[in-house]
Design a protein that fits this description.
Blueprint: E1 7-8, E2 32-39, E3 43-51, H1 62-66, E4 69-71, E5 74-78, E6 84-87, H2 89-102, H3 110-123, E7 135-144, E8 157-166, E9 177-182, H4 199-203, H5 206-214, E10 219-223, E11 231-234, E12 238-243, E13 246-249, H6 260-271, E14 276-278, H7 283-292, E15 295-302, E16 306-315, E17 318-321, H8 329-342, E18 353-356
Parallel strand pairs: 1-3, 9-10, 9-16, 13-14
Antiparallel strand pairs: 2-3, 2-8, 4-7, 5-6, 5-7, 6-18, 7-8, 10-11, 12-13, 12-15, 15-16, 16-17
Helix pairs in contact: 2-3
Length: 357
């Protein structure tokens, strides 16, 4: 593909880079960002890279009132030989378009967006940290900008991509966490917006997360919104269980976000000839396996943590300790292999990584 036309305005002053030893998540941003506009008559237009700066919005901008917005999250890794790698980025733009479709936002050209992203990362490549476990977090998002209080899709939108150097999810090494199974609040229902990365899903989850935190747990395990029986996700991660050698993850029921890490883990397990199934699974089944001693491992999957092992599950008055609160053998190999592919330490047998020049 020929280089797409992208206007670049260089920032006149460059910020000091943060201390790579003390990076947190999403608090520091790079010198530039990408913006692109949508209008009814022009469609998506005027892609440009500009200095990172606050945005100006009309107080009646529709995003501020009805939350018409979508986002994505992916990472650029600095790997062996100083190369910069993206992990399956095309999938993020495909999912952005699926989220947008659900939220009545017009689709973007996925190939073009990937080319723009590569140019942005290339310009900001000095911001991709090198320390073990660190990366440059990439946040594409779209907001409805039309000044209009009518409850209807906006006529105009702004897409932005901002970049943030982030620290390791596991500064002390991968370790299992305690989970509260949420029996009252619901994250999503079939037919709702759970399959879309859209803002309201996340703020609506704070209440349950606060409750889990109060009880001393790290995350919430979400059950289906109708029967409160079937397992859906953990925090904002997909969830996997290993029972008697079989790996099970909830099927995409219409209220679960289709994680790219989830897809990759399923593909790796199939490649490794480990039985894996996507099906409905109830909390009752997990508890029964626990009682029988066949619940071997449990873990969440997502871009931020890659693999987050579950050491304890608290469901109503029942407490289940999984694998003596130790990271399971399979969880560990999946984590090691996938992170090594993402950082180029291991040759990528699947063609998942893309190099940035
Ligand atoms: C983003 C997200 C995930 C994980 O998706 P990845 O593509 O693996 O990062 C899972 N669940 C929810 C609710 C999410 O928002």
């Amino acid at each position: 593909m020929s280089e797409p036309i992208l206007d670049i305005t260089q920032s006149p002053h460059k910020k000091a880079k943060p201390d790579p030893e003390h990076l947190s998540f999403g608090k520091v941003f790079t010198d530039h960002m990408l913006t692109m506009e949508f209008s009814r008559d022009k469609g998506w237009h005027s892609p440009q890279i500009v200095p990172y700066e606050p945005v100006s919005l009309d107080p009646a901008a529709m995003i501020l009132h009805y939350g018409q917005t979508v986002f994505e999250g992916l990472k650029a890794y600095r790997g062996a030989d100083n190369q910069i790698l993206l992990f399956r980025p095309k999938k993020n733009f495909e999912r952005l378009n699926r989220s947008s479709d659900r939220m009545s936002i017009p689709p973007v050209n996925e190939e073009l967006m990937l080319e723009y992203l590569k140019q942005l990362i290339s310009l900001e490549k000095d911001w991709v940290p090198a320390a073990e476990g660190t990366s440059l977090y990439i946040r594409p998002f779209i907001i409805a900008t039309e000044p209009n209080l009518a409850v209807a899709p906006s006529y105009s939108y702004t897409l932005m991509i901002i970049l943030s150097p982030v620290g390791s999810y596991y500064p002390e090494g991968i370790h299992p966490v305690s989970i509260n199974v949420e029996s009252e609040y619901t994250r999503a229902v079939r037919g709702g917006t759970g399959t879309a990365k859209t803002a309201g899903n996340y703020s609506a989850a704070y209440k349950a997360q606060e409750r889990a935190t109060e009880k001393g747990h790290a995350q919430v395990l979400w059950l289906d919104g109708v029967e409160k029986k079937y397992i859906e996700e953990v925090g904002s991660m997909n969830v996997f269980f290993k029972i008697k050698g079989e790996v099970i993850t909830p099927e995409l029921s219409g209220s679960i976000l289709e994680g790219i890490t989830r897809t990759s883990i399923i593909e790796m397990l199939k490649d490794w000839k480990i039985p894996v199934s996507e099906r409905k699974i109830t909390m009752e089944e997990i508890h029964q396996a626990y009682e029988e001693g066949t619940l071997e491992e449990a873990f969440g999957t997502g871009t931020a943590a890659v693999i987050s092992p579950i050491g304890e599950l608290h469901w109503e008055d029942k407490a289940m300790v999984i694998n003596h609160r130790q990271t399971g053998e399979l969880s560990r190999s999946l984590y090691d292999t996938l992170t090594s592919i993402q950082t180029g330490k291991l040759e990528d047998p699947y063609g998942w990584t893309i190099k940035i020049d």
